[in-house]
Every structure is written in structure tokens, then in C-alpha cells.
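Tutorial handout. Part one gives the primary structure; part two gives the three-dimensional structure as C-alpha cells.
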Amino acid sequence: MNTYDAVIIGGGACGLMCAVQAGFLGKRTLILEKNEKVGAKILISGGGRCNYTNLYSTGSNFISENEHFSKSAFSQWTVEDTISFFETYGIKGKEKTLGQLFPESNNAKDIVKVFTDLCSELDQEIICSAEVNTVEQKADGTFQVSFQYHGKAKEITTPKLVIASGGLPIQKMGATDFGLKVARQFGLRITETAPALVPLTITGKDAEWYAQLAGNSIFCRVSNDEINFEENILFTHWGLSGPAILQISSYWKPGESIVINLLPHDDITGLIELERKRNGRKTLLNFLADLYTRKFAEALQKFLPVEKNLASLTRDDLNEIDHLIHHFSVKPAGDKGYDKAEVMRGGISTDELSSKTLQSKKINGLFFGGECVDVTGWLGGYNFQWAWASGFVIAKQL
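Part two.
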């Protein structure tokens, strides 16, 4: 087999960026990818449109045991660098909401094609359908990588090894705990992992109430003791989803409640007072149906006197309505797990890696990037920004 400056395990966002940037620096790499094609998760992201960065990305949009760890990588590879990189290769971005940047073509395949074309031009080799079995460090410090390729056992030795194999979501996309296993093998600490950016489930006596509202979407402010997000929530047959729920899920711990403000930019009591001056005979049900879907307004009869007209609402009624609309408390039973999660929270502890290079502090020549590291971004292109930045940072060391 050919000799390479580095072997990269994982042909996702981080691995592809690492190979391309290494190529620009005159280095030759080999990507070993488990799937039949590289970029599997890129291709399904954003509904196949790929939200490839966020205009407002900063270190504060990431969860980690060390909140400062990602700052070095983001100073070396900025959002402007991402935009410029893709524009150079024909991809102009268009902003959707909250800084989310998508290709003008709305096609994630265009993002992957940039990397496959560049890898070909720069003589970076990609082997797909390669199942890595073992990684060992030899006495001379090099790494021996053993893998299966079309039923045959192969081995390759490399001076530098990059683990960019992703996290535990999504199994059908080939996700495994390979990166964590390698880290443990070399004695690196793992920060506890959990599904993140994941729908939350409701069970027990309230489950039916949520299920009947499946498909209803409402703009809300969702909060816990730590943080709040203003975006849509979506009722589902199993509980709650939608952008605001996915965002808060990364900060939610089992047993905790979350609070939903169903009317974050208005005061429900004030709106009722105004309306009853105009039309006191209007029922609370019809009033709520003007604010939300009819289905949701009807469902609120479980909690509120929706049959009353506005003129007859008492002070106690108004207090009850105010509390329910602005402080709707939910105690999720759990989440939908790694197969419905967009990313993994936790991973290889940032204490184990240099923030400047992403090299293991214990094992020279061993690098970790992307999702397997304990750096987890918000929904909306942030995790791709971390993948591009970490791939770039590692490439400089190869």
C-alpha cells in the first residue's frame, strides 16, 4: 500500500475538511470510511439541504465541560473562512432563519462534491466500505490500522492518526462508538455521553393529550434553569419536538421539568382585557382559536374554562389562564434516543486534548476532531462549523 502522512478514520465533515486542508499543505492522507459513500450525515442534514454553518456562531453556542476549549479552533477557522471556502468552490450561501446558512441550490450533495472533487485533485485517497477493526501504536510511535475491505483484511501503518468517526447518532448512517473506544484504549477520559438535539417523550396520564395534538406547531419560549430558546415546538404522537425542543434537549437532564411560554411576546391577560372591551360575549375558546390552531384551543379545555365568555372571566380565571399560557410546565419522561438525535453530547474529554492542535496530550500523533470530542453545538449549522474548524486545525499538524 502507498505511504501517507496521516490516516483519517471517518469521511464525514471533519475528516473530509482535514484531508482537503492537508492536501493544500502538500500532505497526503488516506480516509477510511465505513459507509459506501463519504459524507453520509452531510447528505441528510437539514432535510438534504445541509445547513453548513451559522452566521452568528461563537464559542457560547457550544456545550462542553470546558466552555473555552473551542475558542482556539474557532479563531483559527472562522465562519468567514467557511463561507469563503465554499464560495471559492461555487457554493453561495443563503440565510434562512437565525443565521442558518444553506447552499443556494438547497442540495447537500453539492457540499459533499466540493470535498470529493478536491480530494481527487489533491491526490487524497478515500477508501469506502472500510471497517476499521483495530488501532495499535507500535514501538516506534507509528500507528497500525487494521481494517476489512470487501471481506479482505488489510493493514496500514501511519505516523499520524486522525479519529473523525463521529458520535453515536445515527446508527443507520453507520454511527458507532469507535472514536470513544479508541480513546479509552489509549487511556483518555470520556465525558459522559447522551443524545442531544433530540425530541422529548411524554408518557403516563398526559401522553394522550399530547398525542391528540400531533402535527400542531406553536412559536414559544422554552426554558429550564440554565437557558431558554425561542422557536417553534411541534406536538408529536410521542411528545414534543421542533427546533425549540431540540435546542433545550441538549441542556435537559432526566427528571427535570421544562417551562414553555406559549405566547412569549405578548401578555395574555392584557390581550383578553382588550378583547373583552370590544366583544365581551366572545368565548375564551374562540379567543384562543384566534391565537393558536382551533385544535390546540379546544385541547386547552382540559385546563381552562374555555366555554366561558370573556366578560364573565373572574380574576382567578385570568390568573389561571396567565399561568398556563406563560408558564406551561412539562416533565418529559425521556428522549427518543440516538437514532432520532442529531448529535451526541459529551465525548472525549477536552482535558485530554490540546485546544490549539486537537492532538492527544498523552499520545503523540493521535488526533480527535468533530463530534466524538466533548464539544456539542446548538441546532442550526453550529456543529458543522465545529467539524470544519477541527478538521482544519488538525490538518495543520499533519
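Part three, for discussion. The mean pLDDT is 95. The domain at 199-336 is CATH 2.40.30.10 (Elongation Factor Tu (Ef-tu); domain 3).
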